[in-house]
Each structure stands twice: as structure tokens, then as C-alpha cells.
Design brief:
By secondary structure, the chain is an all-alpha fold. It has nine helices and no strands.
Length: 160
């Protein structure tokens, strides 16, 4: 049986931790263990949080993906890595990330950057944009296709 006082302290700590942003179940457990709570208390707390739908790995993974694609675009590969680092179940990660289109995301990300690259010649344009996109986890093939498309659009805009 879990001590009622200890359980409520653990629950309060979990509520505070979850107040900033959604968390994976593993993140919540790790945080509570770091705070010194007993294994049984943490288990009971996580069960309560799941009942209240405050801990839901599928919803968390969905939130993480949408947040990344909106504010800090990354490749599918990098989003999968981040979710794996947060110890989200592999099946959930696969379901959530199956519809990510790297080509579309690389193009959108490159489009945001093109205004500061318009004055460059092709080799420098390619180098800079390639570095920018590879840092965000896109693979070589996707980067080259996105850059070719963006360069073509840039050239067409100049000729108009």
C-alpha cells in the first residue's frame, strides 16, 4: 500500500512538471524518480495521470511532431530519433511519423531561407542551403531535390 501523503506529493510534483508542456510517460517517471519518490508511488501516480489523460504517449508524440514541423522543422528521421530519445513506444512513433513528407518539409524550410540567399551564385547557394538542411536531418537526395527546385524557382523569378 502506498503512503497517501507521499502519493499526493508525487502527484503534485507530476502536475507541476506537466504544466509546462506535455511529456512522455518515461519522462514523467524519470523526473519523479530523480525527485526521490519510491517506485510504487511513481507507478500509482502514473496510473492516476493516465486515468486523467494527462500522460498519453500517443498524444505526446502527436504534439511533438506537430510542434517540430511548425516551429523547428526537422526531418522525419530526426523527429523519430527525438521521440525514441524520449522513450516513446516504437509502434506509436511509427504511427505518428508515417505521414511526414521530408521533401515537402525541406522545400518549405528552404523557402523560408531563400530570401537571404538570392544574391548568391549556384555553388554558394547550394553549399549554404545544403548545410542548413542537413543540420536539420534531411538526407542528401532530399536536399539536392529541394535545392534544385528552389534554384529553378529563383531563376524563374529573376527572369520575370
Amino acid at each position: 500500500m502506498v503512503n497517501n501523503t507521499s502519493f499526493h506529493k508525487c502527484l503534485d510534483a507530476a502536475y507541476r512538471y506537466l504544466s509546462y508542456r506535455p511529456r512522455s510517460e518515461a519522462e514523467v517517471k524519470q523526473r519523479l524518480y530523480e525527485r526521490g519518490f519510491d517506485v510504487e508511488v511513481v507507478k500509482e501516480t502514473v496510473i492516476r495521470l493516465k486515468e486523467q489523460r494527462l500522460v498519453d504517449d500517443f498524444a505526446f508524440a502527436q504534439f511533438w511532431k506537430e510542434n517540430r514541423l511548425s516551429f523547428k522543422p526537422r526531418s522525419k528521421k530526426l523527429i523519430i530519433k527525438e521521440l525514441n530519445d524520449k522513450k516513446v513506444n516504437r509502434e506509436i512513433v511509427e504511427k505518428v511519423t508515417k505521414d511526414i513528407d521530408d521533401m515537402d518539409n525541406a522545400y518549405k524550410l528552404g523557402s523560408r531561407r531563400i530570401h537571404i540567399l538570392t544574391h548568391l551564385d549556384y555553388p554558394e547557394f547550394h553549399r549554404r542551403l545544403s548545410n542548413y538542411l542537413s543540420y536539420r536531418g534531411f538526407d542528401y537526395e532530399v536536399i539536392n531535390r529541394a535545392i534544385a527546385l528552389l534554384w529553378q524557382e529563383k531563376e524563374e523569378d529573376i527572369s520575370l
